[in-house]
Amino acid sequence: MRVLIAGGGIGGPATALSLHAAGVETAVVESAREVRPLGVGINLLPHAVRELIELGLGDELAAIGVATAENVYCDRFGTRLFTEPRGLAQGYRWPQYSVHRGELQRLLLAAVRERLGADAVRTGARVVGFDDSGQRDSVRVRVLDRATGTVGETAARALIGADGLHSAVRAALHPRDGTLLWSGIRMWRGTTRAEPFLTGRSMVIVRDGDAELVAYPIGGGRVNWVCQVRMSEPGPLTGEAVWNRAGRLADVLPYFEDWRLGWLDVPGLLTGCDEILEYPMVDREPLPWWGSGRVTLLGDAAHPMYPVGANGASQAVVDARVLAREFARADDVPTALSRYETERRAATAAVVRANRAMNRAGARTPEELARVTDTYRDTTGGDVRNVNARPSLSCR
């Protein structure tokens, strides 16, 4: 029997590759019928890049990503407030990459098919339930075939719920989980064909009152941008949180149309975008436990977080590597999953809370910005000394 992974985003394929490296047979089921390079840019921090390099994906990652060299904080007139080196320039042994999320997903899934076989990834299939009771050496997993509408059942050595923010596995494990929590901030995101700015490997963060812009290159002559506007106080989300919901230029442009950075045309960045996505900035309260027996959670299904510290995808990659390491070490599956959860649940809860704190900080001066960014790295274990000194998570 294989380990079955629900979800073919970032965390799912990373888990499949990591388990394969540990000698564990694995299969991925992905709800989308066709995996296309959808979405926008994300960042992979050095601690996650290290893990992908150790999986043998260093050259492919370098080919699709931009090695970010600095974060530049400025006002809406382009005046620099604070500049922070990133990745290799900051002293890490591994770079920080800005990449298109869909291209990273496609890279990981291609590696899974190449190494595990074409049948290791099944698309158009969604895990809708499971039964982990009364089974000595397996979990029974119910999978919906979206093409036929039929639900089949399969036995798996373990079930890993890497099925994202609206995880069916999480809902089954935690039926009283409650609603998503909204930060009060609405985000509009997009990628635009644009000339590189500053070093060509710079990320810019601009805040003016309740409006904030984050922009960075992701390769291929594209700049990824995120516009964030505070609309209300934090509280439970009353509407939907749909990742690929179409946004309207008319809703976001008025907040940014008079911004003049000089070296970056912010209104032109927004108006030149072919497709705008709109999304509320949400997370959930950290869970008191993730899984039980032969079932657990991973990535956004386990610990959804604000996209503030550029850490969401990175934490999913580290989840995958720790899970595989514990599979290699333990004598049985429940023990492996329990050890994985013990290590990762507290660590990721700290990141969720640190992202909230950074979002609330409202730092303005160079001193405040330096303090907030240093505190974030210290709190999340992402400081240079800690990352460079940490032993490899490789199972070999």
Explain this structure:
The chain has one domain: FAD/NAD(P)-binding domain (3-Layer(bba) Sandwich). The mean pLDDT is about 95. The strands form four sheets. Strands 5, 6, 13, 14, 15, 16, 17 and 18 form an eight-stranded mixed beta sheet that branches. A five-stranded parallel beta sheet has the order 8-2-1-12-19. The relative contact order is 0.17. It has helices at about 10-20, 45-55, 60-65, 100-115, 170-175, 250-255, 265-270, 310-330, 335-360, 365-380, 385-390, and strands at about 5, 25-30, 40-45, 65, 70-75, 80-85, 95-100, 120-125, 125-130, 140-145, 150-155, 160, 180-195, 200-210, 210-220, 220-230, 235, 275-285, 295. Helix 2 packs across helix 8 (about 310-330). It is globular, with a radius of gyration of 21 Å. The protein is an alpha/beta fold and about 400 residues long. One of its GO terms (molecular function) is monooxygenase activity. This is 2-polyprenyl-6-methoxyphenol hydroxylase-like FAD-dependent oxidoreductase. InterPro entries: FAD-bd (IPR002938), FAD-dep_Monooxygenase_BioMet (IPR050493), FAD/NAD-bd_sf (IPR036188).
